[in-house]
UniProtKB/TrEMBL annotation:
Sequence segments annotated as region (Disordered): 1-58
Cellular component aspect of the GO annotation: acetyl-CoA carboxylase complex
Pfam families in the record: Carboxyl_trans
Protein name as catalogued: Acetyl/propionyl-CoA carboxylase, carboxyltransferase subunit
Keywords, ordered alphabetically: Transferase
Residues in CoA carboxyltransferase N-terminal domain copies: 54-313
CoA carboxyltransferase C-terminal domain boundaries: 317-555
Gene Ontology terms for molecular function: propionyl-CoA carboxylase activity; transferase activity
Length: 570
């Protein structure tokens, strides 16, 4: 703003204290005079001996305030145009899409850095590159900060970090979700260790908030160096193709160290983290659909660990029969199908929110509702690697199970698993440790847990997919269930190796032995007769059985053991 307002030529009283004001001119601080109980305010620019201000001066002050706020909100037009030219929205445009209309309360819009250094002295824009505050999504309170790439490239300095610290502290204190919109060039180099200290304060608060309030991180531009740990600490991370990028060391450093030339997108783009690293929970093609999906996710989450997730009206799921389930899942144990179709049949209105859709695709994790109540689905995916569990799939499911348990969301495990993926690469990659993460997550979960065995459930994979032995509350099975140490073919090869080697007709003998093993050990009643399955249900009854089971378990209370915390095999 210019300093051309009226009274600009007047000089302050020589005895008055002089302070800078936002528009760059210098004006005297107002002081109070008069007898006790008779408070009078001297004009900001009143010469000595002049009369006190009259009512018409107040509109002028309001006007200046509104002009300054409008100037802050408008930003630098050239920087805004450059942001749009990159295919990116501004921070304020993003907040307008994310939050309910007129619900945003901005905190510290006048904040400026107090640092000195190249490019900083005399360059102190308001907000310091981050817009922080609180608003609502469908009427529910959230706290949010949006890094503003048009101001110092969204880089983080001491003042910038302090605003984020405040948002995180308020989210924890008020028990409300926190959403971070990341678009930053990283630490502000001129502020040195103060910037690094600011990041540390963010990370510490995120860990304090873990399991207390949901944390959602949305990467809408660069997120490089140590800043990348913030999305990694969040419960959910969203990214947008072509504009989001996240890595610890950029392409230039990679080229210098390894000689390998790689683009920003190839190194840390949305598809890299959505398909390979697993850091991105959801990937979108544009910011509008991404932020709309964030709003939808919030509708499925509780405000904090002490409150239930928002519920909708019951829709009669306890008497809802779905005969198509028997058509989706083939009776033959080795024929593939898409478990997503099963999810859709079991969910209210066929809707579910899938997490990590492109990473570790042999297991599915989703949030949905059954009869209006939010539940978490974990299901093996027979159409990908026959649904076997490997290292990434175990980690994906383990983190989801832990999130649901932390926030009181019941778990439904849909089991059709032939075992763990064998191989030298898997063993060397730590499949024992990774599988133990899923086992640990289920064993310590205290929320209502229901297991449904659709077809095969073999070996250790059966155990870790929330079996009765590790604490599931209700175990249901279809008539096609096969629960055993291994499949019939594998068992016969192990048990009758010598007989098959000396048989005149090994193929005929193998077929006979497989039939006998199947009849004896893989029949649908085997586990139920031994109390490891509560009921064998018609596939068409699955949705109704789940609704009834969840209603039965609604008031489950199981306090955790008295200890500081367990030692998860991470």
């Amino acid at each position: 703003m210019s300093g051309s307002h009226d009274n600009a030529a007047r000089q302050p009283d020589d005895d008055a204290e002089v302070v800078p004001v936002p528009n760059g001119s210098r004006r005297s601080r107002p002081v109070r005079t008069g007898e006790p109980g008779e408070a009078r305010v001297i004009s900001l620019t009143r010469p000595a001996g002049a009369e006190p201000p009259t009512a018409p001066d107040m509109p002028l002050l309001r006007q200046r305030r509104e002009e300054l706020r409008a100037h802050i909100a408008e930003g630098r037009l050239d920087a805004v145009r450059r942001q749009h030219s990159l295919g990116k929205l501004t921070a304020r445009e993003r907040l307008a899409l994310l939050l309910d209309d007129d619900s945003f309360l901005e905190l510290e819009p006048y904040r400026r850095h107090q640092a000195a250094g190249p490019g900083l002295s005399g360059n102190r824009p308001h907000t310091d590159g981050v817009i922080a505050g609180s608003g609502t999504i469908d009427g529910r309170r959230v706290f949010v900060y949006a890094q503003d790439f048009t101001v110092f490239g969204g880089s983080l300095g001491e003042a910038h970090a302090a605003k984020i610290h405040k948002v995180l502290d308020l989210a924890i204190a008020n028990g409300a979700p926190v959403i971070a919109l990341n678009d930053s060039g990283g630490a502000r180099i001129q502020e040195g260790v103060l910037a690094l200290n600011g990041y540390g304060g963010i990370f510490r608060r995120q860990v304090e908030a873990s399991g207390v309030v949901p944390q959602i991180s949305v990467v809408l531009g660069p997120c490089a160096g140590g800043a990348a740990y913030s999305p990694a600490l969040a419960d959910f991370t969203f990214m947008v193709r072509d504009t989001s990028r996240m890595y610890l060391t950029g392409p230039d450093v990679v080229a210098a160290v390894s000689g390998h030339l790689v683009s920003h997108e190839e190194l840390g783009g949305a598809d890299v983290h959505g398909s390979y690293s697993g850091v991105a929970t959801v990937v979108h093609d544009d910011e509008q659909s991404c932020l709309a999906d964030v709003r939808y996710l919030v509708s499925l989450l509780p405000a904090n660990y002490l409150e239930p997730a928002p519920e909708t009206a019951e829709i009669g799921a306890r008497d809802d029969y779905r005969p198509r389930l028997a058509e989706i899942v083939p009776a033959e144990p080795n024929r593939p199908y898409d478990m997503r179709e099963v999810f859709a049949e079991l969910a209210d209105d066929g809707e579910f929110f899938e997490l990590h859709e492109s990473w570790a695709r042999n297991v599915l994790c989703a949030l949905t509702r059954i009869d209006g109540r939010v539940v978490g689905f974990v299901g093996n995916q027979p159409s990908v690697f026959a649904g076997v569990l490997d290292g990434p799939a175990s980690q994906k499911a383990a983190r989801f199970v832990r999130f649901c348990d932390a926030f009181g969301i019941p778990l439904v495990s849909l089991v059709d698993v032939p075992g763990f993926l064998p191989g030298v690469e898997q063993e060397r990659g730590g499949i024992i440790r990774q599988g133990a993460q899923l086992l640990h997550a289920y064993c310590e979960a205290t929320v209502p847990r229901i297991q449904v065995i659709l077809r095969k459930a073999y070996g250790g994979a059966y155990i870790v997919m929330d079996s009765r032995s590790i604490g599931t509350d209700l175990s249901l099975a279809w008539p096609t269930n096969q629960i055993a140490v291994m499949g019939a073919e594998g068992a016969v090869n192990v048990l009758h190796r010598r007989d098959l080697a000396t048989a005149a007709d090994p193929a005929a003998l193998r077929a006979q032995l497989v039939g006998e093993y199947t009849q004896e050990y893989l029949n649908p009643q085997y586990a139920a007769e031994r109390g490891l399955v509560d009921d064998i249900i018609d596939p068409a009854e699955t949705r109704a059985a789940l609704a009834r089971g969840l209603a039965m378990l609604r008031d489950k209370r199981k306090p955790p053991p008295a200890r500081k915390h367990g030692n998860q095999p991470i």
